[in-house]
Write a structure and sequence with these properties.
Number of helices: 15
Largest sheet: 7 strands, parallel
Bound molecules: NADPH dihydro-nicotinamide-adenine-dinucleotide phosphate, magnesium ion
Shape: globular
Strand order of the largest sheet: 4-3-2-1-5-6-7
Strand content: 15-25%
Order of helices and strands: EHEHEHEHEHEHEHEHHHEEEHHHHH
Number of domains: 2
Distance between the termini: 58 Å
Number of strands: 11
Length: 388
């Protein structure tokens, strides 16, 4: 029996890479359903190529356009729209694997739905864990949902843990490329443009995560992601800048051994690992040739240049509603920077101000999470207005 896969965010960077891996394993997987927000043309092309049983798009008018267009090509994909329909689609019995690759907090609801339907989840949407990591992991346990991390660092760690229990871990080290401004002078950061910030040196990704990489908030989010995913203390999670992006993370064991995972920096590798797990399947990517590799460097993250990273570490240590508030403020600030309403260095200031005013709350339900998210967004918008 083939494994039925649904890709949430199929038109994005992770979605497209997942489809590429699936297309080399047609005997193992069925592209059961695809979902996107508004990229009608890309979704149409994907439906023509992969002929999924269902495709989902948010707006009704886009759904109508897709239905009419597909009829012309005699493709029988059923086009769906609306939030509730997406949730129903994710929880269908026929669905085996859900790839959660929607970007940002918009991905939380469908990820939670997939967890509560007991699916095998390929989790790219790190924001789900940052927003409500404890709840998310508790639900996964309750509903027997397997969570496999697509994020390359966490995927590397998943590979390094292998047969060892997480109890014998001394600490883990997440590597970070350092983003496009690693070599920039701190005074230059104020005037960088979205175009410069989107120009990541080693990875090609969606806009939001690219800006997060430039501020290094991405690594901060990933520390929190790792804390919840692997049930570790923040003090057990270190970060090293490694500009070559060849070692994707490492685990330091009590006996002094350090296990690292290395590969080319192509997301098809972690995606294949998750799709095939517990077996290994081909990703279509060649292994690294160490004889052709320049020397590898590792160093600490600069406090002055990357304040978002250190703020996120503190937020992770605070826990409860703090990561949720930070995630919301970050999303609003990143969007404002992309729209050129604020400067690059204002991203940190806005998040900092929102967190200064935040009162820690216990997150007992998903409703609590959404409440903190909403309030923090409103506060971030107020801060942006103050700047302008
Ligand atoms: P992209 O911006 O490239 O793609 C986002 C996808 O989500 C698109 O398909 C988009 O649809 C869809 N989407 C956005 N909002 C909604 C919504 N409200 N409802 C339904 N679909 C929606 O992002 P990435 O692929 O880069 O990242 C996806 C996630 O994976 C993020 O959480 C990111 O942090 C994480 N990740 C990404 C990595 C990468 O290499 N790209 C690495 C590690 C983690 P549309 O095209 O219609 O807008
Ligand atoms: Mg990552």
């Amino acid at each position: 029996m083939k494994n039925n896969v649904i890709i949430l965010g199929s038109t994005g960077s992770i979605g497209v890479n997942t489809l590429e891996v699936l297309s080399i394993h047609k005997e193992l997987f069925e592209v059961f359903a695809l979902a996107a927000n508004s990229s009608v043309d890309s979704l149409l092309e994907q439906c023509k190529k992969f002929k999924p049983k269902y495709a989902h798009i948010n707006k009704e008018e886009d759904a109508k356009f897709l239905t009419t267009s597909l009829k012309k090509f005699k493709i029988k994909t059923e086009i769906l729209f609306g939030k509730d329909t997406l949730n129903k689609l994710v929880s269908l019995e026929e669905v085996d694997t859900v790839v959660c690759a929607i970007s940002g907090s918009a991905g939380l609801e469908s990820s939670l739905n997939a967890v509560q339907s007991g699916k095998k989840i390929l989790l790219a949407n790190k924001e789900s864990l940052v927003m409500c990591g404890s709840l998310f992991m508790d639900l996964a346990e309750e509903y027997n949902s397997i969570i496999l991390p697509v994020d390359s660092e966490h995927n590397a760690l998943h590979q390094c843990f292998a047969s060892n229990s997480t109890k014998s871990i001394e600490k883990i080290i997440l590597t970070a490329s350092g983003g496009p401004f690693l070599e920039s002078n701190i005074n230059e950061l104020k005037n960088v443009t979205p175009e410069q910030a989107l120009n990541h040196p080693t990875w090609s990704m969606g806009k939001k995560i690219s800006i997060d990489s430039a501020t290094m908030m991405n690594k901060g989010l990933e520390i929190i992601e790792a804390m919840y995913l692997f049930k570790l203390e923040i003090s057990q999670i270190d970060t090293l800048i490694h500009p070559q992006s060849l070692i994707h993370s490492m685990v330091c064991y009590k006996d002094g051994s350090v296990i690292m995972q290395a590969s080319k920096n192509d997301m098809k590798i972690p995606i294949s690992y998750c799709l095939g797990w517990p077996k290994r399947i081909s990703s279509g990517i060649e292994p690294i040739d160490l004889t052709k590799q320049s020397s590898l460097n590792f160093f600490e993250v600069s406090k002055d240049k990357f304040p978002c990273f250190y703020l996120a570490k503190q937020v992770g240590a605070e826990g409860e509603s703090f990561p949720t508030a930070m995630n919301a403020a970050n999303e609003i600030a990143v969007q404002a920077f992309l729209e050129e309403k604020i400067k690059f260095t204002d991203i940190f200031k806005i998040i900092f101000e929102v967190l200064e005013k935040h009162h820690k709350k216990k997150l007992s339900s998903v409703e609590d999470v959404y409440e903190v998210d909403k309030k923090s967004r409103e506060n971030a918008i107020k801060q942006i207005k103050k700047i302008n």
